[in-house]
Amino acid sequence: MSTLVKTMALAFNHGRLTVICALLGVLVLTSVFAPWIAPYGEAQVFPEPFAPWSPEHWLGTDQIGRDILTRLLYGTRNSILIALLATVLAFVIGGIFGLIAAILGGVLDQLLARLTDVLMAIPSLIFALMLLSIFGSTIWNLIVVIAVLESTRVFRLARSVSYGVVVQDYVEVARLRGERLPWIMLREVAPNITAPMLSEFGLRFCFVFLTIAALSFLGVGVQPPTADLGSMVRENANLIQFARFDLRAGITPLVPAIVIALITVSVNALVDWFLLSDGDTPNG
Amino acid sequence: MDNHAAAQNEIKPLVDMQGVVIEGFSNDRWTTIVDRVDLKVYPGEVLGLIGESGAGKSSLGLASMGYARAGCRISGGTILFEGQDLRAAGIKTLNRLRGNRMTYVAQSAAAAFNPAHRLIRQTIETSLVKRGWNGTKARRHAIKLFGTLRLPGAETIGSRFPHQVSGGQLQRVMTAMAMVPEPGLIVFDEPTTALDVTTQVEVLLSIKDAMRTLGSSAIYISHDLAVVSQMADRIKVLRHGKEVEEAETQEMINAPKEEYTRSLWAVRNIERNAKIGAEPRLTIENLTAYYGKFKALDNVSLTVPVGRTVSILGESGSGKSTLARCISGVVKDVEGQVTLAGKRLPLHLKNRNKEQLRHVQMIFQMADTALNPRQTVGQIILRPLRWFTGLPREKARRRMEELLSMVELDPSLASRYPEELSGGQKQRVCIARALAPEPEIMICDEVTSALDQLVQEDIIRLLNRVQEEMGTSYIFITHDVLAAKAISDEVIVMSKGRIVDRGSRDVVFSPPFEPYTEKLVKSVPEIDSGWLEQFRRS
């Protein structure tokens, strides 16, 4: 009986994994090949704004007459790319400082930790809004600001998991050998914290992705004419009002929102699976 | 003997296990831990279970209570307790028996107690629940047992919390906990392994007295032959989950049948002629170290001659590991003078140059944590080799393979990761790593204490041989009198941060003894069932 349940659970897990991977695969492929798949140019304008769904424009056109399907494909591509870059940068910054803090310890560790506490005390969305209004909403500013804010979380995790590693005798052996900081960081400690860091990467990516979507929705994120899922939701929000004439018009602004949801949910599910399979020990 | 056997035939065994098979789940499949072992315990009898780690002795001991650890299962055989089939019994029956008719004493008392509750409450808990005693009765009973187990202040010790008593006392409280419900069977799982040798002997004496008063049966599990021969009436030897042999204790000690048992008995017969006189290589003068306000080392001076081994012997808290850490330069608050080969060695790691770092190498107790799990054996040894000697890649590679052969490992292991090696192999890799820079001084910090006895012996032999070949000086830190005897030229005995005895090995370990050394030496159990009684009388 229990074996049957276990097999079913396993099959379900594998099935779920297949679905997640397929979904993420489609999303990644469409974003990579967006310029080839998309029927029109990213910022190509057609005479008729708010055109309904038609064979020419599968999802209609937006408020200035751009093809929504095209924008959706490019938007997915841009959003994923920007979020990915910001997350990677956040991990580089947070990871390096977290490792340094854990390895060197002492005053430096306390200083860095308290500094991140201060940064984390400020709600990051509002902080990002403020910084972007000051420095201007270019894509690079957006990436850097989000990366720096998210790096505080990465820093905390990297530091706390490294604490468990730096007290191991093999790190002491390296120290007794007179190894320099980069070796201890990259060769002795970093390889032993990859599992928690990898799963954190997935979660952070989701948060970054949502933050960027929120910022774009608020108008300080990705700027037109660059397509982006968050700003597409905002730009097409008015179409909701046409839902009583044509239901499809009401669905149009929901499509980018659904894509946002799909990406975050599937990345999350992937991380969950990863975490589960990592510490999997069945009881007999 | 025959009478005894005949008498046993008439008496029904309390525990009767037949063909027990226990399996554990690892790497996605079930592997056999205990393979068709029979076990009988008669009323009032203590059965000793002995074997190396992984022999399945703990699994078998727990199975006598009808229990399998998480990730394990009892998949074959019958287990009868007082005539009742435990494998067929439901959880209700088992719950009624466990903690009542059968109890368990774990190895680590510190991990087995709830730190948030007072000792007395935890001691009597099962008797209240399972026997339905009232609090006063159970408490009176527990206090009487505390007395039998010779706990200081038997009346009041129960009102303390687990962290307020010492390790040896906690182990005795746990024994009391197991004895309060007056069970038929107590399973002792390495109850003294984590204790210092002088504490161990006290705990053994008190357990033995209490068992005699109580008259229960027991299964006594240990890897230490000398301990088991004090406690058990009969001994069963296990290896790789299979029974090797079983006999009355006296018979087992005097005439073991199997080769494996004989090899266990013959452990620690390493002959080393203690050499004296050689020029000093490392000199330590007036070393004093603090942890905060606590003085961990008090004015310690010693000399390590070229190509000799100096053992630092002491119990936990004696400051012997602090001494090692001071020499390797990682203790912050330290004063004194260390001289290596005639030149002054800076006390702090960061002030030492590469040449100075090279000549002080360290081997640790836990080979598991001393090897980076993400580096291969080859990488682990190559790094210090190239770092200190600057050998070009190809030459370093050849030297690494030489080092592996030197520590009796196959050079093909170079591509393996530490988790693929056994405990003894890991410690050999650590030794090879420490040897790589050809150091003048090697500090061995309890390098044998986490290993099985046979492996310990191999490692000590290896260290002795390597010293002959390379002329390295060793500082051998240990709590184990026998290991110190097997490896040292000179011995230093430490207690509470001070040196209390020193001299050549033969002088320190033969009468007349210094008082503390005598206590240490005499507390080491001997493989002789009458030893504990002799110790009591002396």
Question: Topology of this protein?
Answer:
The complex is a heterodimer of chains A (284) and B (538).
Chain A: H1 2-32, H2 34-37, H3 68-104, H4 106-121, H5 124-135, H6 139-166, H7 169-176, H8 181-189, H9 194-218, H10 229-235, H11 247-251, H12 254-278
Chain B: H1 2-10, E1 15-26, E2 29-41, E3 46-50, H2 57-63, E4 72-81, E5 84-85, H3 91-97, E6 102-105, H4 109-112, H5 119-131, H6 135-148, H7 167-179, E7 185-189, H8 197-214, E8 217-222, H9 225-231, E9 234-239, E10 242-248, H10 249-254, H11 259-265, E11 280-291, E12 294-305, E13 309-313, H12 320-328, E14 334-340, E15 343-345, H13 354-358, E16 360-363, H14 367-370, H15 377-389, H16 393-406, H17 423-435, E17 441-445, H18 453-470, E18 473-478, H19 481-487, E19 490-495, E20 498-504, H20 505-508, H21 515-523, H22 531-537
Parallel strand pairs in B: 3-8, 3-9, 6-7, 7-8, 13-18, 13-19, 16-17, 17-18
Antiparallel strand pairs in B: 1-2, 1-4, 4-5, 9-10, 11-12, 11-14, 14-15, 19-20
In short:
Chain A is globular and about 75 Å long. Helices cover 73% and strands 0% of the residues of chain A. Chain A has 284 residues and is mainly alpha-helical.
Mind explaining what this structure looks like?
The complex is a heterodimer of chains A (284) and B (538). Chain A has twelve helices and no strands. By secondary structure, chain A is mainly α. Chain A starts with a helix and ends in a 6-residue tail after the last helix. Mean pLDDT of chain A is 87; it is low at 279-284. Chain B is α/β, with parallel strands linked by helices and 538 residues long. In chain B, 39% of the residues lie in helices and 25% in strands. Chain B is built from 22 helices and 20 strands. Chain B has a six-stranded mixed sheet, with helices on both faces. Chain B has a six-stranded mixed sheet with strand order 16-17-18-13-19-20, sandwiched between helices. The longest helix of chain B is centred in the middle third of the chain and has 18 residues, at 197-214. Chain B is globular. The mean pLDDT of chain B is 89. Classes of the chains: A mainly alpha (284), B alpha/beta (538). At the A-B interface, helix 7 of A face strand 16 and helix 15 of B.
